[in-house]
Design a protein that fits this description.
The chain has about 300 residues and is mostly helical. It is about 75% helix and about 0% strand. α3 crosses α9.
Length: about 300
C-alpha cells in the first residue's frame, strides 16, 4: 500500500473538500430564503429526477436495509443538518460537529457489529466527544444550543447509515443515490408541510440565491463531490482517503470567517481541534491496521 495518495488523486480529494466546504456557505445563504426541510426536499427531488435512469432493484432481502439507509441519510441526516445550519450563528461549529459521526460510527460498529478497537482509538473517541463539550461552551454556540443538538443528532444518523451501508449489496453508487433521494422526497415534503407551512407558498420565497443553493447542493456537492469521492474509494482503501477529508471542515471554517462573519472564540477553536484531532487519530489508526493486514506475510495452510 502506498504511504499516501498520488498527486492526481490528492488533487481530486482536495477538490472534493473544496466542493463540500463551499456547500456549507451556499446552503447557509439559501437557508435564509427556504425553510430547511423544504430545502432538503428540493435537493432530493432534483437528484431523484436526474438519477431516475440509474435506479436498480435491490437484491432480495435488501429492501429494509435500503429503506433504513435512505431515510436515515436523506431525511434525518440531511434534514437535521440543514436545520442546524439554519439555526446556527456560524458555519464553523456546524462543520466541526458534523465530523463527530466518525467516532459515533466506531462506537456503533462495536455495539452492533462486534468490531473491536484498541485503547488508542478509544482515547481518540473520548477526546472527540470532549471536544464537542468544550466547543459547546463557546459563546457563539451557547447562543444557539438547538443547532448543536440537532447537528449531533444528524451526525448520529449519518453514523448509523454508514454502518448499515457495509451490508448493502447489489447497488451501484448512482443507484444508491437515486433510491436515497427518491425515498426521501415524500417524507421531507410531508414534514415540511407539518412544521414549515405550505411548500408551494414557501417556494415563492426563493430568489436566484436560494435556487442556486439548491442546484449547487444537488449537482455539485452530491453528484460531483460524492462521485469523485467514490471514484477515489475504488482506487484506494477508505482508511487512506478519510484523513484528507478533514480539509473540508477546515476550509468551511475559512469560508465562514471570510464570507459569513464567523469569529471563532478560543473554546470553539480548542474544542474544534480536539474533535478534528480525535477524528484524525481514528482515521490514521484504521489506516495503520489496514497496512498491517496488507503487509502481513502469507502463511500457507
Amino acid at each position: 500500500m502506498n504511504a499516501g495518495l498520488p498527486p492526481r488523486d490528492l488533487g481530486l480529494v482536495t477538490l472534493v473538500c473544496v466542493v463540500w466546504a463551499i456547500n456549507f456557505l451556499t446552503s447557509a445563504f439559501a437557508l435564509e430564503e427556504f425553510p430547511p426541510l423544504l430545502f432538503t426536499g428540493l435537493r432530493m427531488a432534483l437528484l431523484a429526477l436526474l438519477l431516475w435512469p440509474f435506479l436498480k432493484p435491490p437484491a432480495p432481502g435488501q429492501w429494509p436495509r435500503l429503506l433504513a439507509i435512505s431515510l436515515g441519510l436523506g431525511v434525518l441526516h440531511f434534514g437535521l443538518s440543514f436545520w442546524a445550519l439554519k439555526l446556527a450563528g456560524d458555519l464553523s461549529s456546524v462543520a466541526i460537529v458534523m465530523q463527530s459521526y466518525v467516532p459515533m460510527s466506531a462506537l456503533l460498529a462495536w455495539a452492533l457489529l462486534g468490531e473491536r478497537f484498541a485503547w488508542r482509538t478509544g482515547l481518540a473517541i473520548a477526546v472527540s466527544f470532549l471536544g464537542v463539550m468544550v466547543l459547546g461552551f463557546d459563546p457563539l454556540v451557547l447562543d444557539h444550543p438547538a443547532s448543536l443538538l440537532l447537528m449531533l443528532c444528524s451526525a448520529f444518523f449519518l453514523a448509523g447509515a454508514s454502518v448499515l451501508m457495509r451490508g448493502l449489496k447489489g447497488q451501484t453508487l448512482w443507484s444508491q443515490q437515486a433510491w436515497l433521494s427518491l425515498l426521501s422526497v415524500g417524507p421531507l415534503l410531508a414534514l415540511s408541510t407539518a412544521f414549515e407551512g405550505s411548500p408551494i407558498a414557501n417556494l415563492g420565497l426563493g430568489s436566484w440565491i436560494g435556487w442556486g443553493g439548491v442546484a449547487y447542493s444537488a449537482l455539485v456537492s452530491s453528484l460531483l463531490g460524492h462521485g469523485l469521492y467514490y471514484t477515489l474509494l475504488q482506487r484506494h482503501p477508505v482508511a487512506l482517503v478519510t484523513p484528507y477529508l478533514l480539509l473540508a471542515p477546515l476550509m468551511a471554517i475559512g469560508l465562514g470567517v471570510a464570507f459569513w462573519g464567523d469569529r471563532p472564540g478560543p473554546r470553539l477553536l480548542l474544542g474544534g481541534a480536539m474533535v478534528l484531532g480525535g477524528v484524525l487519530a481514528i482515521a490514521l489508526r484504521s489506516w495503520q491496521k489496514q497496512r498491517a493486514r496488507v503487509q502481513a506475510p502469507f502463511t500457507p495452510t
